[in-house]
Amino acid sequence: MKISINQRKRYTQNIAFWIFRLLSFMVVAILFIILCFLIYNGIKVISWDFLTQMPEDGMTKGGIYPAIIGTLCLIAGSMVFAFPVGVLSAIYMNEYASDGWIKKLLNQMTSNLAGIPSIVFGLFGMALFVNKFGFGDSILAGSLTLGLMVLPVIIRTTEEALKAVNDTFRHASLALGSSKWQTTRRVVLPMAFPNIITGVILSIGRVSGETAPILFTVAAYFLPRLPHGIFDQVMALPYHLYVIITSGTNIEESRPIAYGTALVLITIVLIMNLIANAFRRYFGKKVKMN
Amino acid sequence: MHKIETKEINLHYGNFHALKGINLVAKENTVTALIGPSGCGKSTYLRLFNRMNDLIDNVEISGQVLVDGEDIYGRKVQVDDLRKKVGMVFQKPNPFPKSIYENVAYGLRVNGINDKKFIEERVVSSLEQAALWEEVKDKLNKSAFELSGGQQQRLCIARALAVQPSVLLMDEPASALDPLSTSKIEELIHTLKKDYTIIIVTHNMQQAGRVSDYTAFFYMGTLVEFNETKIIFTNPKNIQTQNYITGRFG
Ligand SMILES: Nc1ncnc2c1ncn2[C@@H]1O[C@H](COP(=O)(O)OP(=O)(O)OP(=O)(O)O)[C@@H](O)[C@H]1O
Ligand SMILES: [Mg+2]
């Protein structure tokens, strides 16, 4: 049987589409499997007490309350630093700097910063914030280190968001006699804001999950109380998880707690994503309606 | 004194000589049409008057651009003030993603006007001037994106009028619109002429003939011929002009 060129084209296209479809389903499936695995193994230990009590008995019993609070502190602290710095530098690079060597240099530096392994940030944070500035192992030192680490993510996504705003809107605003800053603040930023939030989502995910940058700058091995200020140490979920997995005296007993902790960590990231998404949808609408 | 005048204007984009020694004058309350083939420099020339070329890197300008007798590239001139005096309407309607009301109020707000009553009056009068009021008076708080293309363009005109310029620059303001919206814009230009000096770029010969008092024909960065529209269209002195308006090139 002879097949026409058109049929052949259609076959190849169908095969290609099916492969793509399968691969994309695979991504979803993997995520789903990980979630199920964590829920299956971790749900047993999840209880109100687990979320609100201090760890006990060499971390084989009790809850993970201080680690949850610690991670939330670090998310907030790193964002307080990285969000304004990142967004403002992106605004400078995209709206103000003309295409010269300064812009090239800034761009290159941002890329380099993004390529530094997180353990190196940890080392750097220890040397600079903990020792040199004398902050000690503290929320402040940890937040600054994490903030530095996610700065490139925020800068890049903000830049993309600003670039996505068509120049015709800038021109329309400037042609009415508004300044560059007024144009940026009143026209460009509101339009870019929903996409900027994406950068925040991504960086919150990283901040809450990374162990290396907090290892030498803030994370406490075992500290069953809450911090009183930014110069206190805290426990944090990813490091706590690492500790329970590797150095528990009774691995059998602490294993469920490890899964439970992982589940809480994932849930926090998911909740943050949901909040940020809701935010984005709300502002997206407001930008259109206003 | 002429409302607008350019003297020996030369403009370079890097090495490219885009405007070559342009001399042109426009009287107050007249409409001047800029015509010529694509790439001849019409938009570039138009952008001189509100200094929008300043936004492009590597632009070199020599010569003088006078508005009300003042050199707008002079040291004392504040670009923001100039742009209040010389408004612009772009080729594609580009309302802000804000309400109809806020679009028109924008130019006032950025210029430091906060008086609610004043802003409201100005919004209404600008929309009336732009012949849009009747169509939008019941939905001022709706998004500007809900308007049709032609309405959006008239909104952009209202937005430009709200800061009370005395010169209005229009770069092919109707080229993205349907015939009905186009004729509305043309009527509008007719009525606006009482209060404004208008310079309009157009590719449409009939449009130039209908709306303008004077016509300037550009070709490859030079001003080939400038005269009353009647004369340009009935008795052009230059053979290139003649070829262009009779559609033999461009
Ligand atoms: N930003 C720029 N950088 C470099 N060259 C430019 C720039 N803008 C315009 N030019 C060049 O200057 C010349 C004039 O451009 P301009 O946009 O003024 O033409 P135009 O007459 O408005 O054309 P059209 O009818 O297509 O709108 C063109 O050759 C164009 O390639
Ligand atoms: Mg043009």
Describe the protein in words.
Chain A folds into two domains: 1-42; 48-289, MetI-like fold (Orthogonal Bundle). Chain A has 290 residues and is mainly alpha-helical. Chain A has helices at residues 5-42, 48-52, 65-96, 101-115, 118-132, 139-163, 167-174, 180-209, 212-215, 237-247, 251-289; strands spanning 55-56, 61-62. Chain A is globular. In chain A, a hairpin with a 4-residue loop joins strand 1 and strand 2. A two-stranded antiparallel ribbon of chain A has the order 1-2. Chain B has a domain at 2-94 and 166-245: Rossmann fold (3-Layer(aba) Sandwich). In chain B, strand 4 (59-67) and strand 5 (70-71) form a beta hairpin. In chain B, helix 3 (100-110) packs parallel to helix 6. The longest helix of chain B has 14 residues, at 116-129. The model of chain B has no long low-confidence stretch (mean pLDDT 93). The interface between A and B is medium-sized, with 23 and 31 residues. Adenosine-5'-triphosphate binds at residues 13, 16, 18, 36, 38-44, 56 of chain B.
Give a concise summary.
The complex is a heterodimer of chains A (290) and B (250). Chain A is mainly α. Chain A has helices at residues 5-42, 48-52, 65-96, 101-115, 118-132, 139-163, 167-174, 180-209, 212-215, 237-247, 251-289; strands at residues 55-56, 61-62.
What are the key terms here?
heterodimer, A: 290 residues, mainly alpha, MetI-like fold, two-stranded antiparallel sheet, 11 helices, 77% helix, B: 250 residues, alpha/beta, Rossmann fold, 6-stranded mixed sheet, 4-stranded antiparallel sheet, 10 strands, 26% strand, binds adenosine-5'-triphosphate, binds magnesium ion
